[in-house]
Design goal:
Length: 422
Amino acid sequence: MKNTARKKKLREVEPVVQLTLADVIRADLREFVIAAGTAAIGAVLEHERTQLVGPRYAHLPGREAHRAGSAPGELVLGGRRVQVRRPRARTVAGREVELPSWLAFAAEDPLHERAVEQMLVGVSTRSYARSLEPVPDELVTRGTSRSAVSRRFVAATEKQMAEWLGRDLSAIDLVVVMIDGVYVGDDHVLLVALGFDAQGNKHVLGVREGATENAASCTALLTEMRDRGLRTDRAVLAVVDGAKALAKAVRDVFGTRALIQRCQQHKSRNVTDQLPEDLKPSVRQALRDAYACADAARAKRMLANLVRRLRDEHPGAAASLEEGLDETLTIKRLGLPHRLERQLSTTNAIENLIGSMRRISARVKRWRGGRMILRWTVAAVADAATRFRRITGAREGMTALVRALKDHENALATVASRKQAA
């Protein structure tokens, strides 16, 4: 009985002993890895110094540099800067000799990248230090304060913004361009242009901050993209929201080479928002049925019937539906496979990108001007672009789309030649 009771007691306390031991092992392992890494860095630096000045205490004729002890220095470790001793070397003339590995280890860029990554995943500047892996108490650290993290984030996003907004676009075989806007704060609109190449790959083409989502802002965005190498001298499918302004801007830059597809979802919302609540479901279903129709001519008849039905009682909704009605059906006249047609009949692809922008920008409590908005937007867009996939239906549909655009170009060339002959 006594042995049984003793074994039972041991089984009861055994899990506690294992947990405590595991915690100790984890702590010791982390400290061991940090200590081993610090020692390895020291060994690398000492090896470089030895290559420059020769072995310690060796008398070498013609020596060009010599050891100069060590000095306090800082390295990047786990999202912070830690103080270490830096081995030094000087030339015979007294000039400091830089060790290549030290320049690499002490670089600021890893901290900038870590600050941006932490901000994008939702870590605030106040909580940055708590999000990092702990280091041994004997290591002196800095660079985790709110102000330091904020400065690094601003510096990194400024550089990123300059690179993104100045990228060369000449290598993109543009087939589709989508343009939409998102309101940030009370006075700012961010226009975003997303492109699809002939293989269906997505490319963020440009971002522009403005006061309103009007034709002037969109024209400026497209012109800027053209100046960075985007080809506007051949046919392209332009998918825009339901507003006339964006369609006008596309025509101003691409001319008749652009086939305009108005977003069917934007058009449906624009129409139903002008109707009483009891009428919205039936009109919404009528629009859905028309846009689901495979035949463009039949879909146009269905929409025209809906315009006549609404004209007397709700002229505003009827006028909204009638405006640009043909351009909501452009994609149906191209004879594309259903999956790709469905993707290109709306701006949902760019809405997903804008959703990422909204989620990240929602963490900002107060915007300090348009440049800050643009920095955050570019950071969000660049982050979302790392997860881009080909547009759905590209495998079987992009060849048909490229062929349809080529036919459009040929038709324009035929008309132009006939005019010249006349």
